[in-house]
Design goal:
Blueprint lengths: L1 E2 L2 E9 L3 H11 L3 E3 L9 H27 L14 E3 L1 H8 L2 H35 L17 E9 L4 H11 L6 E5 L6 E9 H13 L13 H29 L3 H21 L3 E2 L3 E9 H14 L2 E6 L11 E2 L8 H7 L10 H16 L2 H17 L5 H24 L6 H10 L19 H29 L3 H22 L3 H7 L7 H21 L7 H12 L2 H10 L1 H21 L5 H39 L22 E3 L3
Parallel strand pairs: 4-12
Antiparallel strand pairs: 1-11, 2-9, 2-10, 3-9, 5-7, 6-7, 8-9
Helix pairs in contact: 2-4, 2-8, 4-7, 4-8, 11-13, 11-21, 11-22, 12-13, 15-16, 15-20, 15-21, 16-18, 18-19, 21-22
């Protein structure tokens, strides 16, 4: 467990080689570029190129989404684990010569998408008009007919159900003398009544005003043709629009053969955008450029030699200044490295802090397995994660870390399951009794240590013990960091005093009635040891009072702050009690699993019972494993973040993020 040592690299060179040098650094994946100034140093030309690259990446992404909609690639459910297609630098460079054709193809696809949208809109409009014609299908005159020689023609519909009698009554009551008219009601329903009213022109305005007050509305389509003729035209228009849309979709499916070119366009555009964004951090003159960044010290000389041999550049290597925070990269062995993501989620080590990954990994796997504690579930995790890791070796770094972490969590879960006698709960014993006639009093699968369901208080005591060890290790790391920084007085006041106080209190607790009520029996401690424990606790308490704030010149304030630090004993008690979740989650897994097995065995033996047992067993344990796997993950993280890291770790380091070609989606450049 360590933080990678960094060196600062300064590069100066001819401006015409700026892009080439950045591409080289991107391919080497070592150079963490830092700002020369807080200001944006890039020239307008670079900004224009950046906007173009970002637009091109968006163009490619939209085109690929369109292809996935109409011609989805047959990649399978594990496609995301396969990683990008491998290309050597020569192949990558050759493909960059075809970017213009790929961009043209992407643009043509998006034009087809617009055509599909337009055709769909025209078909939808035709359908709406067809539906609007339904009430007028019995009309034998053009829909735009408005008058004859002496008469006015009103074509429209009234909301609700009307009859000739009700309309006649309306005219009679509201328009006295309005008798010279012809009224024809077309086929309507309870929601509307379509009608045609023929009346004298001089009486038409009053009649139309009366009808409008009742909600009279004209047809949505006003045409020179009859409804039958208009319907035929609309049906033809709809069919033509649908056909046009289908032709465009077919053309998109044909163009799917160029999917890989558009994918490469997306990746190269993203890399170009990353390079151009980096240029904003560099300095440049009329003929030169300047780059500053960090490189792992072990590989700095090799990169310096490569750049100076290949380009007209001057490269300098210097150690970072004390006030200059170098980016943080973690380096751990294969066992601990998978849990780096847990540390990174909390925060990378800050100045003067150690990398806690190695020690944390041991506790992480240990506590995770204790919470899940079922050999069957652990075995599934081992096999499942192992197969994924073997079958998809090119998966992304983050996914590989996660799978490897859960593989080791599965190993721990399997071991704890054997110790506690859990294999899909008590499935082996239930199957033996239900289908093989084994007597109830015979236990086929026995725990190597003890069964938590029968001795929960024993597990609780051990949970507290593991918690104390976990917390003491965290406090010990804090002490190591303080001594490494030569802060001896802080070590005495913040670490040594706590160790003395806590060890003394624990030794005083073990033979007490309180501990006996929890564990079932006290642990006998010799009288001299008990006396020594009281002395340790007293010395620790005095140490906290006097040295927790030793740097304060005001003695009264110093004692007050020391007393406040001593009050932190309640926080330690709370932290230790937090480890009772080990008992809670461990029991929850076993109890739910046992209930599932009992439910599955309710139908007895025989073929029917076996079938029902298998169905309930598979569904129940799948749900139980998923729920408790999530619970174990969440609470294991919490114990690290709150209890363990809270004793010594602040984080806040800047992540080492070198220019790289790894952050691509579809293609992957082989490492040089």
């Amino acid at each position: 467990m360590s933080v990678v040592s960094m060196q600062k690299m300064l590069i100066a060179g001819a401006r015409e080689e700026q892009d080439a040098v950045l591409k080289e650094l991107q391919r080497r994946r070592l150079f963490h570029l830092s700002r020369l100034s807080e200001e944006d140093l890039s020239v307008p030309e670079v900004k224009e190129r950046l906007v173009k690259a970002e637009k091109q990446a968006q163009l490619a992404d939209n085109a690929l989404k369109l292809l996935n909609e109409y011609a989805p690639a047959d990649e399978g459910m594990f496609a995301s684990l396969k990683g990008g297609k491998e290309l050597d630098p020569g192949e990558w460079q050759a493909r960059t010569g075809r970017l213009a054709q790929a961009a043209a193809l992407a643009e043509s696809l998006l034009e087809k998408q617009k055509g599909i949208a337009d055709a769909s809109a025209r078909a939808a409009r035709a359908q709406v008009l067809l539906e609007g014609l339904v009430p007028w299908e019995g009309l034998d005159m053009p829909l735009n007919t408005s008058e004859t020689g002496r008469c006015k023609v009103l074509i429209g519909a009234l909301p609700g159900a009307w009859t000739e009698e009700s309309l006649a009554a309306l005219f009679r009551d509201s328009l006295p003398g309005f008798e010279n008219y012809e009224l024809e009601l077309l086929k309507g329903d309870a929601t509307q009544t379509p009608l045609v009213l023929l009346c004298l022109k001089e009486e038409a305005a009053a009649a139309e005003e009366l009808l409008r007050k009742k909600g009279f509305a004209k047809p949505i389509l006003v045409s020179e043709k009859t409804p039958t003729e208009a319907k035929e035209d609309l049906q033809f228009e709809k069919a033509a629009a649908i056909s046009e849309g289908e032709e465009l979709k077919a053309a998109i499916r044909v163009a799917a053969s160029g999917r890989d070119e558009i994918q490469f366009l997306y990746d190269e555009s993203e890399l170009e955008a990353a390079r151009l964004s980096a240029l904003a951090k560099t300095g440049e003159g009329s003929r030169s450029f300047f780059i500053s960044g960090f490189v792992p010290a072990a590989r700095a000389e090799a990169l310096k030699k490569l750049l100076e041999d290949k380009y007209t550049v001057s490269v300098s290597l210097v150690d970072p200044e004390p006030e200059e925070a170098a980016p943080v990269a973690l380096r751990n062995n294969r066992f601990a490295a998978p849990t780096e993501s847990v540390v990174e989620s909390y925060g990378l080590p800050g100045e003067g802090e150690v990398d806690p990954t190695g020690i944390m990994a041991i506790f992480y796997y240990f506590l995770f397995g204790l919470m899940l504690s079922d050999a069957g579930y652990g075995l599934l995790m081992i096999v499942g994660c192992g197969l994924v890791l073997k079958k998809f070796p090119k998966m992304s770094r983050s996914t590989k870390q996660m799978m490897t972490m859960f593989f080791w969590c599965g190993v721990s879960t399997f071991i704890w399951g054997l110790l506690f006698g859990g294999f899909f709960g008590d499935a082996i014993n239930v199957i033996a009794r239900t289908f093989f006639g084994v007597p109830e009093n015979v236990t086929v699968f026995k725990p190597l240590w003890f069964e938590p369901l029968k001795k929960p208080m024993k597990l609780l005591v051990y949970s507290f013990l593991f918690g104390v060890i976990h917390l003491f290790v965290g406090l010990g790391i804090k002490g190591y960091q303080l001594l490494k920084q030569k802060r001896v007085m802080d070590f005495i006041g913040s670490v040594l005093s706590w160790f003395l106080l806590l060890i003394g209190l624990i030794l005083m607790l073990l033979p007490s009635d309180l501990f006996a009520s929890i564990s079932g029996s006290p642990i006998p401690i010799p009288a001299p040891v008990q006396s020594a424990a009281k002395i340790l606790a007293l010395v620790g308490a005095v140490g906290l009072l006097l040295f927790a704030a030793w740097d304060r010149k005001n003695f009264g304030l110093r004692l007050a702050l020391g007393a406040y630090e001593l009050y932190g004993i309640t926080g330690w008690l709370s932290d230790v009690l937090s480890y009772s979740r080990l008992l809670a989650l461990g029991l929850a897994t076993g109890v739910i699993a046992s209930v599932i097995n009992s439910m599955a065995a309710m139908f007895g033996g025989g073929i029917k019972g076996a079938i029902l047992f298998i169905i309930i067993f598979l569904v129940g344990h799948a749900l139980n494993m998923a729920i408790n796997l999530l619970g174990a993950y969440v609470h294991t993280n919490r114990l690290q973040y709150v209890e363990f890291f809270g004793k010594f770790y602040d984080g806040g380091g800047e992540e080492y993020a070198p220019l790289t070609t790894e952050n691509t989606k579809y293609y992957h450049m082989e490492e040089m």
